[in-house]
User: Which sequence fits this backbone?
């Protein structure tokens, strides 16, 4: 039955059916095939229990914290500080764009939010400085993929909750891979900027200038520090950390920067509710789908099929990476994570991959899909804020996709990159 389930699943997706409906229809098909009508009576309970998880409360709270920090006007401060640090390099604004994405990642945990906030400021600014507008949009889209890898991360919250993996451990495991992504993007950006003679800042920022930029961005940059220290130090759980992040963001936006009012807060709450509502509907139907897959041992059957082809750990990981990258081109990261997580996680365990390491591999692959054509969400976001065509940004994005794929393989085949910090902090 496994093959028919997969055919129906991907056929519905290709027809453009919403993911929540796809999972629901596929689940009903499985129940009908089993011929046990008693299973239908369990749907309401499974539907509710799928989202009745304390760790999932962190998702809407992190979304709200990111919305508040965006509205609080931190973007300019982060960009200014990044420019002072790397603006004197060849293609300085492109490098500052990537560095700003690394710093911004700890504030929102969302690739789309990062691409919208940074793109609206940096794409026009880079064009004024002599950069090709499509190149500027491509850099922004690619670097925004760092957002869901460096903690806090919404996709890691969902993966940890559904796969029963420590969310705090995943946060710790994502720090170095996120930096690796930034380094590879900076290397490729420098090569392209050197070939095209893109400009750099006329003078290197002095230490007092760097300190001034850091001081302006200090309060904003403290939020990820508070979150990480609190979670990794055992002071509070990831869900409690999300609530602390909202409180901190409100204090900064309302009392310090004073650019958030009640009307703004209402708008941000509406955005949080819409985003969370969509995700929770998908998660609810996914809970039924995952339960049925597990009951029918579909993941085990797929694992046996793959291992019948090869038992080589590195080849199996290569196959998994290829499938995840391909699926990421056509599906948003969260639905893909929910569908493929229960399928590939047992397979990864079978070949001896640590759950934290594999969680980072999955999140990294599917996040890169946000910047790949034809359906990458970050691509469309940067097209909108940067006023460029999809064809134009697609031509410029490929070197950066290659850079991100290089980062994926480095993280995949050197487990210490993901596991060193979790091991030091006692998550292993």
Assistant:
């Amino acid at each position: 039955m496994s093959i028919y389930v997969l055919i129906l699943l991907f056929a519905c997706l290709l027809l453009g059916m919403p993911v929540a409906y796809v999972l629901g229809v596929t689940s009903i098909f499985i129940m009908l095939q089993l011929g046990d009508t008693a299973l239908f009576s369990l749907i309401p309970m499974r539907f509710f229990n799928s989202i009745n998880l304390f760790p999932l409360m962190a998702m809407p709270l992190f979304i709200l914290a990111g919305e508040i920090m965006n509205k609080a006007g931190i973007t300019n401060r982060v960009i200014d500080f990044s420019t002072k640090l790397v603006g004197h390099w060849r293609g300085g604004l492109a490098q500052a764009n990537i560095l700003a994405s690394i710093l911004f990642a700890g504030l929102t945990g969302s690739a789309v939010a990062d691409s919208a906030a940074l793109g609206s400021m940096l794409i026009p600014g880079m064009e004024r400085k002599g950069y090709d507008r499509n190149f500027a949009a491509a850099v922004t889209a690619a670097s925004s993929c760092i957002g869901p890898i460096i903690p806090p991360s919404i996709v890691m919250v969902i993966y940890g909750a559904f796969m029963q993996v420590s969310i705090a451990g995943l946060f710790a495991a994502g720090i170095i891979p996120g930096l690796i992504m930034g380094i590879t993007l900076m290397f490729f950006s420098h090569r392209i900027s050197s070939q095209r003679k893109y400009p750099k800042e006329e003078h290197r920022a002095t230490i007092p200038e760097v300190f001034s930029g850091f001081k302006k961005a200090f309060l904003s940059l403290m939020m990820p520090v508070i979150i990480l220290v609190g979670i990794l130090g055992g002071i509070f759980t990831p869900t409690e950390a999300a609530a602390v992040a909202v409180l901190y963001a409100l204090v900064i936006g309302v009392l310090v920067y004073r650019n958030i009012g009640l009307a703004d807060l209402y708008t941000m709450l509406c955005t949080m509710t819409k985003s969370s509502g969509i995700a929770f509907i998908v998660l609810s139907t996914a809970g039924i789908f995952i339960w049925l897959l597990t009951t029918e041992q579909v993941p085990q059957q797929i694992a046996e099929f793959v291992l019948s082809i090869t038992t080589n750990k590195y080849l199996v990981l290569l196959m998994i990476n290829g499938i995840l990258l391909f699926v990421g081109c056509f599906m948003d990261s969260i639905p893909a994570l929910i569908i493929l997580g229960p399928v590939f996680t047992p397979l990864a365990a079978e070949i001896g991959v640590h759950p934290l390491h594999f969680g980072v591999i999955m999140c990294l692959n599917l996040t890169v899909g946000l910047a790949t054509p034809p359906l990458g969400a970050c691509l469309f976001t940067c097209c909108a804020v940067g006023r460029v065509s999809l064809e134009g940004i697609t031509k410029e994005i490929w070197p950066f996709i290659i850079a991100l794929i290089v980062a994926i393989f480095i993280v995949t085949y050197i487990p210490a990159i993901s596991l060193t910090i979790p091991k030091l902090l006692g998550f292993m």
